[in-house]
Design a protein that fits this description.
single chain; mainly alpha; 2 domains; two-stranded antiparallel ribbon; two-stranded antiparallel sheet; 10% strand
Length: 284
């Protein structure tokens, strides 16, 4: 998990660009006109969003309170397949090295195949195509998040545009090895160096998206890849050098994909596990 580069151009102009891209149909020829009639209200809300976005205080925003008909019209603006929306996804997920990251930033497990609305679109339809409110996501995370975003006046999900993720390790894993079977228990722990407010959001983010359980359910691919790497070097390098190479590579991945990237945390724990590494000693 790592921070994303947020949209920096005029958000309201993006809203208008999405509207422009919509087709006018014979069935509803006045649709665009109805949306344009809400321009003043929407632009005012976008201004409030931006002010709170800069301060990272989105929990202070109140919904405009559109009528049901207005809400339904606004919700029709959003489509993941819309060309303007698709271009936004490419822009957000392209790294400085000009590589597109297509793994959900919320879980770093599944493929991006939707946008999550940080402020839920049913509660805040005016932000349905606000690019600062759209986060690349998988449908699994999107489904778990649903309409929940705040409890007791506090945000319960990380805002990967705004929340500075700690460089300190907070994700850990315990291993249990029985014969050839490896099971894992991932857990969160603040060893005292992480601000309590951000760690509280980290905890609710991981728990509500069921990330710890989802990590454990997806370990086989990581372990298979790791074992293939180890086996390819057995007999060519001493086991200690193989171990050091695994840890070095995994730490490079943590720089690229986040200090608490679950795959790297697992690989390092396995490399440091004497019982696990010793199973490769007898391989010819």
């Amino acid at each position: 998990m790592r921070n994303l580069q947020h949209y920096t151009d005029d958000a309201f102009e993006f809203h208008k660009e999405v509207l422009k891209s919509k087709n006018t149909t014979k069935k509803d020829p006045s649709y665009k006109e109805r949306i344009e009639n809400m321009d003043d209200a929407i632009e005012g809300q976008f201004s409030a969003y931006n002010d709170n976005f800069v301060r990272n205080t989105l929990e202070n925003i109140d919904s405009y309170g559109h009528t049901d008909d207005e809400k339904n019209d606004l919700l029709k603006l959003y489509s993941y397949k819309n060309s303007v929306i698709k271009n936004l996804k490419v822009k957000i997920t392209t790294t400085a090295a000009n590589r597109i990251i297509n793994t959900c930033p919320n879980c770093t497990i599944s493929e991006i195949n939707s946008f999550d609305h940080y402020l839920p679109k049913d509660e805040f339809p005016e932000f349905v195509v606000n690019p600062q409110n759209l986060f690349p996501s998988c449908t699994i995370c999107n489904g778990y998040k649903n309409y929940i975003w705040i409890e007791g006046g506090k945000r319960v999900f990380l805002n990967l545009y705004l929340d500075s993720l700690p460089a300190e390790q907070y994700l850990f894993v315990n291993l249990a090895i029985t014969g050839d079977v490896i099971t894992t228990t991932f857990y969160l722990q603040n060893n005292g160096d992480i601000n309590n407010d951000i760690f509280e959001i980290i905890e609710t983010h991981y728990n509500k998206l069921h990330l710890l359980e989802r990590f454990s359910a997806n370990i086989n691919e990581v372990i298979t890849s790791l074992e293939n790497t180890i086996i390819s070097f057995v007999g060519k390098l001493p086991l200690d050098e193989i171990k050091d190479s695994i840890i070095e590579k995994s730490n490079r991945d943590r720089i690229a994909f986040g200090h608490n990237y679950w795959k790297s945390i697992l690989e390092i724990e396995l490399a440091n596990c004497v019982e696990y590494m010793n199973r490769f000693v007898t391989i010819d």
